[in-house]
Amino acid sequence: MGRPPCCDKANVKKGPWTPEEDAKLLAYTSTHGTGNWTNVPQRAGLKRCGKSCRLRYTNYLRPNLKHENFTQEEEDLIVTLHAMLGSRWSLIANQLPGRTDNDVKNYWNTKLSKKLRQRGIDPITHRPIADVMHSIGTLAIRPPQPPGTPPNGSYLPAPPLPLVHDVAYHAAGILPPPTPQQQAVIARVDADAPASPAADHGQQQLKWSDFLADDAAVAVKSEAQQVLVQYHHEAAVAVKSEAQQVLAQYNHESAVAANGGGVLAAAGSSSGAGGGGDDGAAAFIDAILDCDKETGVDQLIAELLADPAYYSGSSSSSSEMGWGC
DNA sequence: AAGGCGGTCAACCGCCGGGAT
DNA sequence: CATCCCGGCGGTTGACCGCCT
Description:
By secondary structure, the protein is an all-alpha fold. It is 55% helix and 1% strand. Strands 1-2 form a two-stranded antiparallel sheet. Helix 11 crosses helix 15. The radius of gyration is 24 Å and the shape is elongated. It binds a DNA duplex through helix 3 and helix 6.
């Protein structure tokens, strides 16, 4: 069987740490170093879970941590890295000496994402919110199809590419080479980037810059496609949460007029929300998510995104997607 | 002065990949 | 090979604080 449990979960203290506990943990780590967190609480005389000790140390007690406010340079770097990497907070934090992933994550959630929104930038896609809403409008005018209806040629082009996870798009051979500014950031990320899965098997270790240089790397392509599929899902969920606020300003009437009732009306009626307005917007996103599940579009997206021709508008894949539910 | 409200951030939760048994 | 835990990670929660009415 496996190992014994790390701690007696029913007998551990939770909640804020006291100065005494901090002192005990600090004293222990300063003499014994870190590692083997399972044994740390017992040896340090703490009634805490090892996991809690590790978190407290890495996020608060660790030497060389910065506790002052984020600088403008750090802020800019976070935004740039988030646009490239998404919410990989540990990778982003590695580029900010003295900052933890928790710091960066909190700062993003409480300050930066709001700042971007105030500037009209969607913090998920790093594109103008107007573009995002246009994409929703584009999706909305896909005419609803009854189940089993064969695809036809009436669908509109796919929405614009998002900037987020551009590295992945480079890897898939979809985007042109990065700008010098992007290259500078990528070079910094390389220094601390985790080894690729291939490295664990004695193969050459890949770095993020390799993603840009070698679009023929099958393993990397596969990883990139997974990221892209995840992006689509995350973006849809995020958009749903904001849809009621943002869509209130959106010209709903013109969208409805353009599609003659379209998906918005269909989604609204199918959910019993009464159609139109904010309820209709939320129901619309729900309908998309349901549609993904029912049709297996998640998997199709991966194939679709692997086809660069799709983005130049010449692929046959988009017409084979069968969007209607 | 008191209550409501929103912002901040430390801490917890739950998941996942890898490793130990 | 199966099972289970560890360490790491991102998402979420809730206590605390300051501001506003």
